[in-house]
Design brief:
- By secondary structure, the protein is an alpha/beta fold.
- 53% of the residues lie in helices and 10% in strands.
- The chain is built from 18 helices and eight strands.
- Strands 1-2-3-4-5-6-7-8 form an eight-stranded parallel barrel, surrounded by five helices.
- Helix 1 links the parallel strand 1 and strand 2.
């Protein structure tokens, strides 16, 4: 099983937007592009919502059947570890292995020495597309080697329970305090190869901030330099290290990063490379936009979600502390939001490139507020069905126009 050159992690937290998402991929095909659709959902999201990987697989399969989509599609066990992987294994064919918990754990002296000798032999041949320093190798040996070994354990656990060739693997190292340098990425891939970990995608920590539901924060030129260098590394690694031929970079929290899509498109076009982009939480936000736009009970539900999120901000943001930055003084008071009409609410929440009305603090809070909708249960799900036209249109247009077109078509 292999990913295509372009693949997009879409997510679908409540399992009702698959057909609207596929409509975006069909529109992409009509314009001459193509991409794999990957429905990703984490253990944390399942627990919060009260869903299961079986529900996730069922919703994806029903959407494929109902739309007669004949492209590649995947169900992603997102950010799994050995603690959480088992209930995903029968239902997923994409596994994002997250090793954040073991980054920084020292490796044994023997493992460290073996790695350094192997890395020096491979990289001193001078074939790497970037300079890899002794400091890069030692940083990886001290900080990332144990994490790669943990990923290997998780991969083999999955492989023992899945048919050969029936799934793909991503290695996620994006949840660190500081970015990895290109030299460190090359050195990490040496460890991945030694572990015989056949990753299809690798998610490093890039420079800048990738906050939930808002645009990239940071030096765009610095990001592009890093992205281009690391794209060259993943193109080099298959032949040099024996990693899979279709290895590509993955960008997590990639939704709404409008400042980056043009540059990413230009780099991957010039290099003939691919990319995986995760846009998962955007779908949930577009459900709220669609409800608010519809007015009536839809707008009332959107306001209730915001009011509850405002009151429970500490609880909702705690699990996402490294990917949200909310200035509480800029959040509109619930009493103010209660007076808003549909146009005002949608203008504050909808994120279009260059928008002057979107309120980023409100949008980030709503992004992590899906727990509130989950607690509404059938009331929320019924509203999504009642206001299906508005919700589906917003989900489809956001994914197609703001993400797929600039990233893949340019």
């Amino acid at each position: 099983m292999h990913l295509s050159r372009f693949s997009i992690g879409t997510g679908d937290r409540f399992g009702l937007e698959g057909e609207a998402q596929i409509a975006a991929f069909k529109a992409l095909r009509e314009r001459g592009g193509d991409a794999d659709i990957v429905w990703n959902k984490s253990n944390r999201e399942h627990v919060i919502i009260g869903s299961s990987p079986a529900d996730q697989e069922r919703a994806a399969a029903e959407s494929i059947r109902n739309t007669a989509w004949n492209g590649k599609w995947f169900v992603d066990a997102d950010h799994i570890t050995m603690k959480t992987v088992d209930w995903f294994i029968p239902h997923c064919n994409f596994f994002t292995i997250d090793v954040a918990e073991t980054i920084g754990t020292p490796a044994s002296p023997d493992a460290r020495n073996t790695y350094l000798a192997r890395a020096a032999f491979l990289l001193n041949k001078g074939s790497a597309p970037v300079e890899v320093t002794k400091s890069d190798l030692e940083t990886v040996a001290d900080k990332f080697l144990t994490a790669v070994q943990e990923a290997g354990i998780t991969y083999r656990h999955i492989a023992e329970r899945r048919a050969p060739g029936s799934f793909v693997v991503e290695l996620s190292m994006d949840e660190t305090d500081t970015p990895q340098t290109p030299g460190q990425v090359a050195a990490i891939l040496v460890a991945v190869a030694a572990e015989k970990l056949p990753i299809a995608t690798f998610a490093p920590r890039f420079p800048g901030k990738f906050l939930k539901g808002v645009d990239y924060v940071g030096d765009v030129a610095e990001f592009m330099r890093s992205f281009e260098a690391e794209t060259k590394i993943v193109q080099w690694a298959p032949k040099a290290l024996g990693l899979p031929e279709d290895l590509k970079l993955s960008i997590h929290t990639g939704s709404d990063k409008y400042k980056l899509y043009k540059g990413i498109h230009e780099i991957i076009t010039r290099l003939g490379a691919g990319v995986h982009l995760k846009t998962a939480g955007t779908t949930w936000l577009e459900e709220i936009v669609g409800l608010a736009e519809a007015g009536g009970d839809g707008l009332a539900i959107a306001k209730r979600v915001y009011t509850s999120a405002y009151v429970r901000i500490d609880e909702l943001t705690a699990p996402y502390a490294n990917v949200v930055e909310i200035d509480r003084s800029r959040l509109p008071k619930p009493e103010e939001v209660a007076t808003w009409d549909s146009v005002t609410f949608v203008s504050a929440l909808r994120h279009e490139p260059g928008s002057s009305t979107m309120r980023s603090d409100m949008r980030q809070l709503m992004h992590v507020g899906f727990r509130i909708a989950a607690e509404m249960g059938d009331e929320y799900l019924s509203a999504l069905r009642v206001y299906r036209e508005s919700v589906a249109r917003n989900v489809r247009n956001n994914l197609f126009e703001r993400h797929l077109v600039p990233l893949i078509l340019g």
